[in-house]
Each structure stands twice: as structure tokens, then as C-alpha cells.
Amino acid sequence: LKQHIGGPAEICVAVGDRVLRGQALSKAALGQGLPIHAPTSGTVTAIGPGRIAHPSAMADIVIRIAADGKDESVPQQGITDYTQVSRAELLERIFQAGIAGLGGAGFPTAQKLALQRPIDYLIINGVECEPYISADDRLMREHAASILDGAAILLHLAGTTKGLVAVEDNKPEAIAALREVIADYPQFSLRVVPTKYPSGGEKQLIQLLTGRQVPSKGLPIDIGLVMQNVGTAYAVSRAIRHGEALTERVVTVTGENVQQPGNYWVRIGTPVATLLQQAGFVSEGEQQRVIMGGPMMGFTLPDLDVPVVKITNCVLVPSTKELAPAQQEMPCIRCGACADVCPAQLLPQQLQWLAKAKDYDGLEQQNLFDCIDCGACAYVCPSEIPLVHYYRKAKAEIRNLAREKAKAEVARERFEARQQRLEREKEERLERHRKAAEARKQA
Description:
Blueprint: E1 10-11, E2 18-19, E3 26-27, E4 42-51, E5 59-67, H1 87-96, H2 109-114, E6 121-126, H3 135-142, H4 144-158, E7 163-168, H5 172-182, E8 188-193, H6 202-210, E9 225-229, H7 230-242, E10 248-254, E11 262-267, H8 272-279, E12 291-292, E13 299-300, E14 314-316, H9 337-341, H10 348-356, H11 360-365, H12 376-380, H13 387-442
Parallel strand pairs: 6-7, 6-9, 7-8, 10-14
Antiparallel strand pairs: 1-3, 2-4, 4-5, 10-11, 12-13, 12-14
Helix pairs in contact: 3-5, 4-7, 10-13
């Protein structure tokens, strides 16, 4: 239900309902969650707690559908000329298609575009810098025209006339495909950047392309920029031109323990076990790890029943020789190597101590949410401390606490409003009685 930043949407189906591909399974208002859609036709068999794709391995509400094999879709209607349609309608279509940022964070795309501020540049991010992952690379090679079409729609909605398409220099085929198409889009410029991890991070790429720095706890829009992933631009093109909801995405399936590695179109909601079965997974037994994401920013799955979600760009199945299993965590030796490699210029060692102590105020003061989970600190740590794991867990707990606090605040305001209403009604009643008493006295 929750495959994006923000709260989950309200379920609008029940067990036993037959659903079609592209049918909304949940509904939400703009700015309050994001709808999800049935990836194929079938019957809803269960709605309840289940494991989700999250580093904490926590449970959340999951809708299970038994596919009927017919893959019937809801009727779709696209827009030929989006310039003749109001901005509000275009944003509503993108929202109802359930499109979130496919690059990693999963920020609702319509919500990001709805912010009314002056924009200097729209940046389309094709910098896929993490090892093993090539989903965006393959998408740019084969669907460059749709990506640029979606980018033009995003540029129109952002209210600016200049766009940048950024690609790493280790993707010559993708660069050639984009160069061929970009000639038809004079408002866009292609920027080829050096291959260096983690230059694909939002703040890092903005500084690389424009020299501007996103402020701490700020957003790119604060400095006149909006960034979207190439997969998001493709999904926007499909939603506007063809009326398609986001029900599938490209996923890299790779590693030495997969017999048919490659990039696959995968329906959102597909269990990882089913995906690996199709790709020829050969397990090494108990020591086998299955990682969702790349070797740096990915996390080991608790089991293979976890579904593919909107932000799943890779499923990595390495052998123990290819990627050594995590070693026993040892005490920190205060070498400072983690701070030297942090692209966000944070203090990873200090953050880890605060996360262990559950000092959430201290974590906020140390700018925990500026951490991009790149994993560089954990990679260089000689003590094998899984630093990013601590940060992710702390972030999830802080967000949960903030949600609970917001709920409590709403309940308090409702209680106070009720008390004021009761007090007001009491005063009005007493005033009526006083006037009645005076009238009787005069009579």
C-alpha cells in the first residue's frame, strides 16, 4: 500500500473482488498519499499485514491478488496535445496514475510539480552510478523518444523553458540514443558527466551540473531546480499519452547465482521469489543473500515473499565469492575514514552512536536526513559496522514518531475544540436562563 514518501492511501477494494490491470486498489487526495493499481487482472484473496521492501523488515498492509492469466485492463484514454489541457488536469492524471519518483526516494511526482515556485531548470537524471544496476541505461537505449516526451511534459508542468538531461560517460549507447532524439527538443541540453559514485544522488548531481548547493533540510526547488528520474519521465509519457497507470517497471536482475541475468519488465507487486524463478536462481543455501538494490545502497531481504515495488530498480543475487557476507561488527576504532568519504559531509561515527542511543533530537541536530544512504561509510569501515542500517532504522523510527505526534496533535485539537463548544453552549444556556428569569421578574 505504501510505495512512496507520505502516508498510505485508503483501500477501496475488498477480499473476493475481481480487479483489472490498472484498476485503483486505493484512493487518495493530492498531497495525502498515492494510489496503487492492480498489476494484472485477478481476484483479491487477502488484505492484511505482510513483509514489505524495507531495510527494517517491518510489516505493513499488503493486498494479495491471485492472477487469472487473462491480463485484462481497464479502458485507457490518452491525451494527444497536452498543451491544450489545464495544468490541474495534467497533475491529476499523473497523480491518479500513481507515479512516484522511480530513482530511489519515491516522492509523489504530482506533489513535487504542484509546488508553485519559479524554476530555472528541470533536470532529468539518467546518472545510474551504482555498480551492477543498468535498468535506466537499458530504458534510455530503447525508449529515448518516450523519455524525452515525458521530460517535455514535465518541463511544461514545471513552468520553465530549460531542461538538462544528465548521463554518465560509461553509457555510450544511451548517449547516442538520446542525442538522436534530443534534436527534436531544443529546450533540452544533454550533459555527459564523469562516472563517479555517488554522483547520481540528487544533491550531488545538482552541484555537479549547476554549482548550486541544496540547503540542509531543503529541497532542490528552494534553489530553483526540479529533478526527475528517466524512469519517471517515461512513466509520465505513458500516463498522459496512453492513460496508463504505473503497473510495471524495469528491474535489473543480476549476480553470479542467476543463470539469466538481465533487465526485465516486472509487474509491481510480483514476489521476488517469482522473479528469481523466471531468471534461473540457484541458491547457495543458508548463506545466500538476496539484495534489493545495488551492493552499496541495497539491503538484504528477510525472505523472498517481499514484492517488487515502485522504487525497486535491482535484485542482486551474488555468490559468496562475488560479494562476501557481512562480517561480525567490531567496535569503532575512530579512524575517521567514514567522515572522509561522506559526500554529504556528515559525521557518520557520531550519527551511529546517536542512532544506537535512540537520541532522535541529537540525530536531527546532526542532520541525519541529509544522509543519502549511499553506503560509502559502511564500505570503507574497517570494523565492518553496518552504518547505513542504523541510519535507515533511525529515520523510519523518527518518521513513525512524527506521524504519531501529528495524530496526537489532531486528537488534542479536536478535544479542545469540543471543550470550547461545550463551554460556549453552557454559557449560552445560562444566558438564556438569566434572560428568562429577568422576563419573569418583570412580569
